[in-house]
Write a structure and sequence with these properties.
Length: 273
């Protein structure tokens, strides 16, 4: 594979890079070398890792125990069991080394230190004064955080998404996220508003614009993204919508399919009854 006019070349178990003229990129041969990606290739020598650029320059004076490829100008590097970031100039980004570090996104890296989690920007400023028991990466501008066995969302401004902390949460999909409080489930939208005034025993993810929900002691229905129910009828059993149809069951009717208007599809009536 040839990138930036140099391709990886192996000779006698050692690696270098060679161009179409037969010229080697560097006089140094390595124990291993990867292909160039975004102008850099990872190299291994005496059990340690570094990067080399297309000018043949090894970018860092420090060799590492492990490295990831560059993404958005930064690479995760590991040394003596701790993690940091370097930029494409080979400069370490943080004075602090962390127990773990995850990819830089939204200008923030998720970090772990002494079993606590936070986010830090490339200027070395922590995102929050609060360290969390756990935190996830940002997704659509929000990250799930856990503190004292409760969950919330935090945005890229460092503000909590809701004044309420929940027993469980899931990531946002279709503009809503599942949240659990006191054993009951609901959905919350990106404005921090509950989708329904009613809380449910069970909720599924939205599929084809509908989420299967269970009402305590009453049965199942489908919740729409506007917070209303698909039908006034409740079912003893039901399944998610797929291609505009969902399988439902009632003791007096057996199994039938309904469409997105909540109407029974006549030709399928009783197919599993």
């Amino acid at each position: 594979m040839e990138i930036n006019n140099f391709s990886r070349h192996c000779k006698n178990g050692k690696y270098n890079f060679i161009n179409e003229k037969g010229e080697y990129l560097t006089d140094q041969w390595f124990d291993y070398a990867g292909n160039f990606y975004c102008g850099f290739a990872h190299i291994k020598l005496d059990g340690k890792w570094n990067f080399i650029n297309t000018d043949g320059k090894i970018i860092s004076d420090q060799w590492f125990d492990f490295i990831f490829g560059f993404e958005d100008g930064f690479s995760q590097v590991k040394l003596n069991g701790k993690w940091n970031l370097i930029n494409t100039d080979g400069k370490l980004i943080y004075d602090q080394w962390f127990d773990d570090i995850w990819e830089n996104s939204n200008g923030l890296s998720r970090v772990k230190l002494d079993n606590k989690y936070n986010f830090i920007n490339t200027d070395g400023k922590y995102f929050s004064n609060q360290w969390f028991d756990w935190a996830d990466n940002f997704y659509h501008g929000l990250a799930v955080v856990r503190l004292n066995d409760k969950y919330n969302f935090i945005n890229t401004d460092g503000k909590y998404f809701s004044n309420q902390w929940f027993d469980e949460v899931d990531c946002f999909e279709n503009g809503v996220a599942k949240v659990k409080l006191n054993g009951k489930w609901n959905f919350i939208n990106t404005n921090g508003e509950y989708l329904s005034d009613q809380w449910f025993d069970e909720v599924d993810y939205f599929c084809d614009g509908f989420a299967r929900v269970k009402l305590k002691g009453e049965g199942y229905n489908y919740l729409k993204l506007d917070g209303t129910f698909l039908t006034k009828e409740l079912y003893d059993e039901c399944y998610s919508f797929l291609y505009g149809l969902a399988l439902v069951a009632k003791k007096d009717k057996g199994y039938n399919y309904i469409d997105i208007n909540g109407e029974y599809v006549k030709e399928w009536e009783g197919v599993y009854g």
